[in-house]
Design brief:
Number of strands: 14
Order of helices and strands: EHEHEHEHEHEEEEHEEEEE
Structural class: alpha+beta
Strand content: 35-45%
Helix content: 10-25%
Largest sheet: 9 strands, antiparallel
Number of helices: 6
Distance between the termini: 56 Å
Amino acid sequence: MIIIKKGDALNSKFDQNMVNADDLKALLTKKPETVLIDLLSPEHFAGRHIPGAQNACVFQVSFLDDLAVVAPDKQVPIVIYGASIRCQDAAMALKKLDRAGYEHVIILEGGLEAWRGAGYGLEGEAPDQLSDPQTTVTLPDGQYTVDPDTSQMDWAGRNPNARHSGTVDIADGLINIKDGTVSGTVEIDMNTIHNINLKGDELQPVLEAHLRSDDFFFTKMFPKAVFTVKEANRIEPCWVTAPNYHVIGELKLRGVSADLEFDATAALGEDGSIVMEAHFDIDRTRWNVIYGSTRFFEHLGMHKVFDLLSFQIRIVAVSAV
């Protein structure tokens, strides 16, 4: 916890381990030995930071080790700052430092944004450039082709005694984005359905053959499944790491078409690609995959199979231009 010496002219300005930008400026002038720590990423720190600050990224697993290099003495006064008043980076760092035994830790209230807002300068490679906080996503308009090599589809099915999981290949697809709304199609090669949890077991090829048979997906007759995205709309404020799109579509599987809705998380790849990921369950019997379902058969014994199938899908699409 923070300890302030009696008689310090700035004592009354501190409130619950916090100091505002004006008081920090005065503190750094009066006590230049104060250790000032920037908690953001090394890349962000290189671009802009408060003059005299040192970097220890709170998001790194090595945060406390990194901090120990720049502040080995846990009795030395430390001021930490993050991005803004909205960001929990400094609060998280304070808890870590308190548990680690640092006794003189103060947070710059409002972080880097408040320092800049108070009219104080920054230093670095681009000190005057405002940086994207990278919290929300805006998908650029255009037509995108699904990349089968980097896209992935995982499945899981269950019976009363076991859980089986595996993969199936995404074969092709086209994604259109207009004013933030997504549409398009994704084709799935059902002949590539594989099991992974029985790898090396003699039952693995038996299960795979069963899944391709007319008991389940009947891939000889229906080699492809097609998911048509009729409309996918933003879930505001469209956080990058949360489900940020609601997808309304139609899945054609085993010759049967049925509506399918789910939430997905969309993001922009570093190479400009569109990345969409979703996790959802379907009731397979809606597509006439009824083997082992007690809603359709009696006296199944060991052949019971639960109706719900779980999917985890990652679609990567690159610009078609």
